[in-house]
Amino acid sequence: MKKAVLYFLIIATISSCYAPAGGELVGAYPREEWVQANPYGMNYIHFGSFTMGPSDEDVPYALNSRAKTVTIPAFYMDQSEISNNEYRQFVNWVKDSLMLDILAQNDIEGYSQKEREDGREFERFVNKGYVLNWDEQIDLSNDEVFDLIYDNFFLQGAEKFYDRWEIDSRKLKYRYWWIDLQAASRKEGKDEFSNPNTLDQLHSFKGHNDRSKFIIEEEINIYPDTLVWIHDFTYGFNEPLTENYFWHPAYDDYPVVGVSWGQCQAFCAWRSQIMNEFRHKNGLSYIQRFRLPSESEWEYASRGGLELSPYPWGGPYTRNYLGCPLANFKPMHGDYVEDNGCHTVPIFSYSPNDYGLFNMAGNVAEWTNTAYDESVYEFSHDLSPEYQYRSTTSDPPSLKRKVIRGGSWKDIGYFIQTGTRSYEYQDTAKSYIGFRCVMSYLGRGKSSNDGEFNAPMDME
Fold first, then answer.
1. Which phi and psi (to 5°) does residue 217 adopt?
2. Less Cβ around it within 10 Å: N or C end of the chain?
3. 413 forms bridges with which residues in the sheet?
4. 3-state class of 433 per DSSP?
5. What span, in angstroms and rounded, lies between the C-alpha atoms of 270 and 95?
6. CA pair distance 141, 121, nearest whole angstrom
7. 209-230, pLDDT tens digit by residue?
8. Cβ-proximal residues to 239 (8 Å cutoff; 6+ apart), any chain
9. Is 159 exposed, middle or buried (0-12, 13-18, 19+ CB in 10 A)?
10. Among 382, 360, 455, which Cα is nearest to 79's?
11. Which of residues 146 and 1 earns the better pLDDT score?
12. Alpha carbons 255 and 380: distance in angstroms, whole number
């Protein structure tokens, strides 16, 4: 991907020409006309300000009862939590790429591409000297292909169950890269770069110092922890969910669980990669990357434009006028089914909020990008507030705590309120935590003049 970005920048540079335009300042041309992509399955959230924080009761010693007015730029958010089937697309892509990769490494004909169409040799972004040929189907009737795939990716010997062919999920590791702009923007970063506040400036860096220390490589096993249904609940019988929840088609439209914060980051990186590779092949500009929402973005979206409302549907009650629960949570002690679900329910259950977002309260709690701090409202900025840190093993445990929002199927009504904060450690996986993605809108935001969004009166 880094090579592809560099290639794109070089082509863009050499394709431009000097056009004095009568000595007038007219800008650099030609430039692509930018049309903001509307990602499938996402809703547009218009920029605005709101009062962030609890809108109702606060439990004793929660230490998060402060309220604060903040402003959030425009962005897109998934209509629902990421489902098992959507996450399985990620798992299958990683599986297939690893299989194609090992066939290419062993010089099996047809599974790699040595040259571009114009005949110039190039290297893959991991410097292997080839790219994978996704148009080639894996031919298991070929003995050499079969042996490589079976020996490297399937359970062997005593680990097999009833002699079934089962993928060894421990092998499903995804490698990706990200740029640590936070480190680059600090003092030590400014010593390395002139002013590395954007990706364009990073790519145009011409200094003699090493910028590679800000390009971080991650590798993580991306298969969900299916045992969460057992180890989360002592003295409970949840083996059927462990055996079936992620892979069985009966649960395709249920929210994926058992994923850590790091696995969610990897999913976002992969989702950005496949979208940008498609756009690059079709001569289109890259989109802004998919990512986890900040805590403030999540709360702003969950309120659906209803200021000071304790729940996404308004409030102050968790039931409608017929007495039916409005979300998937734990309405009464020991009673999980009054809301029409024992555990998780399909991702488009119940009514959406006024932004068209489903299950912003209940079903599964959701990871955010924000590190948890009890006093964050005291020091965070009032424009797009965020407190983030991509933690390493040397960081204190407090920086590994990530905010989760929305409450889940096992939580009481307090935890499904729009302003309630909680956290889990980033390397944990739970049967009641999932996630959804966001993507920043590039530009001021849509307006009523665009014919796409019923926004407040345009000020221009």
1. -100, 135
2. C
3. none
4. strand
5. 13
6. 31
7. 677 888 899 999 999 999 999 9
8. 229, 230
9. exposed
10. 360
11. 146
12. 31
Q: What percentage of the chain carries pLDDT values higher than 90?
A: 55
Residue with tokens 């009514």: 351
Count CA atoms closer than 13 A to 47's CA, side-chain side: 16
Domains of the chain in start order, with CATH, are 32-81+258-460 (3.90.1580.10)
Interatomic CA distance for residues 404 and 294, integer angstroms: 10
Cα dihedral 21, 23, 27, 29, rounded to 10, equals: 30
Q: In the block, which residue shows the tokens 């669980």?
A: 257
Output DSSP code: residue 362. B
How far apart CA 309 and CA 55 sit, in angstroms, is 6
Look-up: residue for tokens 């041309």? 29
The per-residue pLDDT for range 145-172, each reduced to its tens digit, is 999 999 999 999 999 899 888 999 999 9
Q: What sign does the CA torsion over 232, 234, 236, 241 have? A: positive
**DSSP, res 148:** H
306 pLDDT more than 60: yes
Query: Which of 344, 321, 318, 322 has the alpha carbon at shortest distance from 331?
Result: 318
pLDDT value at 458 more than 50: no
What amino acid is encoded at 93 in this protein? Answer: W
Mean pLDDT across 350-359: 96
Q: Smallest Cα–Cα separation from 223: which of 176, 257, 269?
A: 257
Q: What is the pLDDT of residue 64?
A: 66
Q: Band of the pLDDT at 196, cuts 50, 70, 90?
A: very low
Q: What per-residue confidence (pLDDT) applies to 116?
A: 44
